[in-house]
Design brief:
Shape: elongated
Largest sheet: 2 strands, antiparallel
Number of helices: 2
Mean pLDDT: 77
Radius of gyration: 22 Å
Strand content: 5-15%
Strand order of the largest sheet: 1-2
Number of domains: 1
Bound molecules: zinc ion
Structural class: mainly alpha
Low-confidence stretches: 22-26
Distance between the termini: 61 Å
Length: 79
């Protein structure tokens, strides 16, 4: 890497760091809870949030299983 490219990379990193601070999430005064199982943010690894609902990684796993089962049944019963 030539010195000029290095300098540009450093500048970009510095900008990114500042941007990170700007977009840092404000602290919430409440804990997000999964809309499906009701577990709190602190009990879970990951949470996907939409406008008014949240779903945790555990419930997503259950959903994936249910959908996979339905697809398998559909294939076996319709034929
Ligand atoms: Zn859940």
């Amino acid at each position: 890497m030539n010195p000029q490219a290095m300098q540009e990379a450093m500048t970009l990193m510095e900008k990114a760091r500042k941007y990170d601070e700007l977009i840092a999430f404000p602290e919430r005064d409440y804990e997000l809870r999964c809309s499906f199982c009701g577990k709190g943010q602190s009990e879970l690894d990951k949470m996907v949030t939409a406008k008014n609902v949240c779903i945790c990684n555990e419930c997503i796993g259950v959903c994936v299983e249910i959908i996979a089962e339905d697809e398998n049944e559909g294939v076996s019963t319709n034929e």
